[in-house]
Design goal:
Aspartate Aminotransferase, domain 1, Aspartate Aminotransferase, domain 2, 444 residues, 2 domains, alpha/beta
Length: 444
């Protein structure tokens, strides 16, 4: 609120009612040693125009993607969000909606979630999808737990080419459940599953990311076949935009598909909120975490919607719950549904093709710079890694001065790839921006 509506008399009356003499009495329980002894270092009072100008000056210190060309991906992507997405999200029916426990008064919210689930199923080639999860990392962790619960086994084998921060999240979930994580090593930017004893009868799931953290395309069908030989589930983490041109995971035998849905109609927003999506085969639907909206008919035979599965600890006994996930990212999922609906199959394919073409154009220009080489030979989608002729941190500082947000220093996660940078191109990057990036990498 712009104005504090309470007058001095209002405050005195409220303090009197609760038995406090002055405002300081409200903080009497705080130990003196943790309380501020000096006034806050804030400027003096300002008029409203002065304050508005001051706040604009402060906010201008943030780097906005309206002013900077972003080539940083690694899980958060600068895709275009059509104006219709934000406009429809502003509708009060969506903004004020709460968990649709009472279907008779929540049909609009339930239908929106049902349509989102249907779109995710169509995108991934799977049979069922839930009403979204917190983010891609927690969705992957929930998938691993789901596989262990379904198979009764306590071991998951995961690709060393999955986003390292996602792997840390999975480890946090599994560590205190007595479940084991085994890493299949990275080799040349893709996963090497060909190791004796890596997969055995104890394996609950094989997990890959497609495209992987390095942007490279894995031999997903071969990974799925290895999982089936050991009677393990096959979990695929994917970039939903890539499915505009890549084969859907359901078509090559995935049992569970998860991913980060930020690239579908959600702004980067300085890091969130995002949404995790999850889809699975019909046999696993009762092990799926979160909630699932289903379509049915009322007693007059009219089409309607209801929460079909609610296997959360909030609804049933904790020891029978599939997960302690107690909510979903409904607004972000709605943005994704609007985005997918507006784009359609051809629109999503166009976004994916433009991202692919621009990434390959950038790769050709950058690797033509003297001393810069491609890190890997594997085919890639919209992200790629290069070995630079200087320190990535130093390069990124120089690029930033020219309003270019550079790539990710791979040495941060992979010590063996110090001096390598992961770059990303979406459909929003222009030819001029790509050429300026290549010139900046070349020191021009």
């Amino acid at each position: 609120m712009r104005y504090v509506l309470n007058t001095g008399e209002d405050r005195r009356e409220m303090l009197q009612i609760i038995g406090a003499g002055e405002m300081e009495d409200l903080f009497g329980d705080l130990p003196p040693e943790v309380r501020l002894k000096t006034p806050l270092d804030l400027p003096g009072p300002m008029s409203e125009p002065e304050l508005a100008r001051h706040m604009r000056d402060i906010s201008a210190e943030n780097l906005s993607l309206d002013d900077y060309a972003c080539f940083l991906g690694a899980g958060a992507y600068d895709h275009y969000v059509p104006q219709i997405v934000d406009q429809l999200l502003l509708r009060s029916e969506f903004y004020t909606a709460y968990t649709p426990y009472q279907p008779e008064i929540s049909q609009g919210t339930l239908q929106a979630i049902f349509e989102y689930q249907s779109l995710i199923c169509a995108l991934t080639g799977m049979e069922a999808a839930n009403a979204s999860l917190y983010d891609g990392a927690s969705a992957l962790a929930e998938a691993a737990l789901m596989a262990c619960e379904y198979t009764g086994k306590k071991r998951v084998v995961y690709s060393g080419c999955i986003h390292p921060e996602y792997c840390l999240t999975v480890g946090t979930y599994l560590r205190h459940r007595g479940l084991e994580m085994v890493e299949a090593p990275e080799c040349g930017g893709v996963t090497d599953f060909q190791m004796d004893g890596l997969l055995d009868s104890r394996t609950a799931a094989v997990i890959i990311q497609q495209p992987n953290f390095f942007g490279c395309l894995e031999d997903a069908e071969a990974a799925g076949e290895l999982a089936r030989r050991r009677s393990a589930l096959f979990i695929v983490m994917t970039d939903p935009v890539s499915l505009g041109i890549l084969k859907a995971p359901g078509e090559y035998g995935a049992d569970i598909v998860v991913g980060e849905g930020q690239g579908l109609g959600n702004h980067i927003s300085f890091g969130g909120p995002y949404l995790g999506f999850m889809a699975c085969s019909q046999k696993l639907v009762r092990k799926m975490p979160g909630r699932l909206v289903g379509q049915t008919v009322d007693k007059q035979g009219r089409r309607c919607f209801a929460l079909t599965l609610q296997a959360r600890e909030q609804h049933i006994r904790r020891d029978r719950a599939t997960s302690n996930i107690c909510s979903n990212e409904a607004t972000c999922a709605l943005a994704a549904a609007i985005h997918m609906t507006c784009l359609g199959r051809e629109g999503l394919r166009s976004v994916a093709q433009l991202s692919l073409q621009k990434a390959h154009y950038a790769h050709r220009l950058i690797t033509s710079v003297e001393g810069v080489e491609s890190s890997f030979k594997a085919p890639f989608f919209k992200e790629f890694a290069v070995r630079l002729n200087e320190d990535p941190v130093t390069l990124n500082r120089r690029l930033l001065k020219n309003k270019i947000i550079g790539g990710l220093d791979l040495g941060r996660f992979y010590p063996g790839y110090c001096g390598h940078m992961l770059l990303c191109c979406t459909e929003l990057r222009t030819g001029d921006e790509i050429r300026r990036l290549a010139a900046g990498i070349g020191g021009i």
